Amino acid sequence: MPLNLAVALFCATASLFAIAGADDPYRFFNWNVTYGDIYPLGVRQTGILINGQFPGPDIHSVTNDNLIINVFNSLDEPFLLSWNGIQQRRNSYEDGVYGTTCPIPPGKNFTYILQVKDQIGSFYYFPSLAFHKAAGGFGGIRILSRPRIPVPFPDPAGDYTVLIGDWYKSNHTDLRAHLDLGKKLPFPDGILINGRGPGGASFNVEQGKTYRLRISNVGLQNSLNFRIQNHKLKLVEVEGTHTLQTTYSSIDIHVGQSSSVLFTADQPAQDYYIVVSTRFTNPVLTTTATLRYSNSAGPVSGPPPGGPTIQIDWSLNQARSIRTNLTASGPRPNPQGSYHYGLINTTRTIRLANSAGQVNGKQRYAVNSVSFVPADTPLKLADYFKIGGVFRVGSISDNPYGGGIYLDTSVMNADYRAFIEIVFQNDEDIVQSWHLDGYSFFVVGMDGGQWTAASRNQYNLRDAISRCTTQECGT
Ligand SMILES: *[C@@H]1O[C@H](CO)[C@@H](O)[C@H](O)[C@H]1NC(C)=O
Ligand SMILES: *[C@@H]1O[C@H](CO)[C@@H](O)[C@H](O)[C@H]1NC(C)=O
Ligand SMILES: *[C@@H]1O[C@H](CO)[C@@H](O)[C@H](O)[C@H]1NC(C)=O
Ligand SMILES: *[C@@H]1O[C@H](CO)[C@@H](O)[C@H](O)[C@H]1NC(C)=O
Ligand SMILES: *[C@@H]1O[C@H](CO)[C@@H](O)[C@H](O)[C@H]1NC(C)=O
């Protein structure tokens, strides 16, 4: 069955300039972004390093912390970092995408001032311009619960960031040039786990103990399946929501998504394969890392366990089974289920269809036929300072109409506190991720075929997951 639509509900709230919450703790970071040689697949490549590291350093924080991150751009190109899943309440100017924040010029620095207000969970940061993500510059972000807020599982013995993603031996400037020649992205050369190729990464555990993995897909295009030989994965959190704790033998993570799983090292003491493979591709790309028991009697043995490959139903069923634990606390002591999103009337429906095609000989991607062109002035600044001629509200329609792709600085407006239904429609043959920057939304439905008003009867209006990135498989 083709799976080509996903429906999200979200609430639009205002974004105004705001300063950090003065009473909450501060954490300071000084980051130097440089080029450096990396060898993730055994060949030398130009990577983007942060303080000499690839992937970049993790950000550890607690709900409501203020993060002050001074970033020096030592590259030869403008650079911007975006904080995937951080909600930037009244603070969208720090979000680090072209529409909100000026790029940091080469040789200059900029200090991001964020507050992880009312958030918990697992996220990551990445460079949002110029295909820099294909060279590195990404890292994990975790937001722990405040000490008195109950977490619906015991403290794990260890808590690891696991960044997985497809990878190319070509550098980011060559990949960019490839698209500008009108070609699509080639098939990747490999998959990396924490910046390492096959057999490179390892995770140490003690027999009998339970560990948390915060897995994010930081790749460019491919949906990935994650599994551990002979071990079950218990899903506990998805992009800041505590989930029903369901156990899976493997889990799909689509581009831009983050999930936390728990697993117990309950097997005979030896080493085991951690496997990540591409979904919906032919051939299937696979990579491994090592799970190492502290009292390990020997190396990994047997073939790495297989996972789902092209089965779409499997992925759809798993996605539908990911639901909110309504009685667990989120960032606040009250249960997550006390916000009854299903009782709120939607005030507007937006249908967004993605497409791919050539414009002026270059490979371009579009939403409702518009391929976004950045303006010289970030849109939020043009809006705030009332600078005319930068963008036109309504320059993208609320519905697809099937026309050819054209270039525009597309801007859609939303009313403050409007509760919006968004239907994502994918008629392409690869999986799409849709990310709403700075917002979480409830993924109330996902199915094949065309959306109609009758599709609403199938919505999950009770315990859908609230997240910032949803997938949509192609036809
Ligand atoms: C960043 O690193 C480069 C290369 O090591 C160095 O030349 C430069 O001085 C560093 N900049 C800062 C601000 O630390
Ligand atoms: C650049 O870094 C310097 C030295 O740390 C700092 O004083 C200054 O505020 C930074 N500038 C910006 C725009 O963040
Ligand atoms: C939901 O959270 C509650 C409260 O922490 C917990 O007791 C319960 O086991 C969780 N249920 C599931 C199915 O995860
Ligand atoms: C990428 O590789 C090409 C050669 O294939 C080279 O000309 C270019 O300078 C490289 N870009 C970077 C950022 O290293
Ligand atoms: C939603 O709309 C119905 C019908 O118009 C109305 O009776 C109900 O009060 C509305 N609910 C909310 C929460 O506004």
TrEMBL record:
SUPFAM superfamilies cross-referenced by the UniProt entry: Cupredoxins (SSF49503)
Keyword Glycoprotein: yes
Organism of origin: Theobroma cacao
Residue span(s) of domain Plastocyanin-like: 33-146, 159-296, 376-471
Protein name: SKU5 similar 5 isoform 2
Similarity comment: family membership: Belongs to the multicopper oxidase family.
InterPro entries to which the protein is assigned, alphabetical: Cu-oxidase-like_N (IPR011707), Cu-oxidase_2nd (IPR001117), Cu-oxidase_C (IPR011706), Cu-oxidase_fam (IPR045087), Cupredoxin (IPR008972), CuRO_1_AAO-like (IPR034273)
Protein keywords: Glycoprotein, Signal
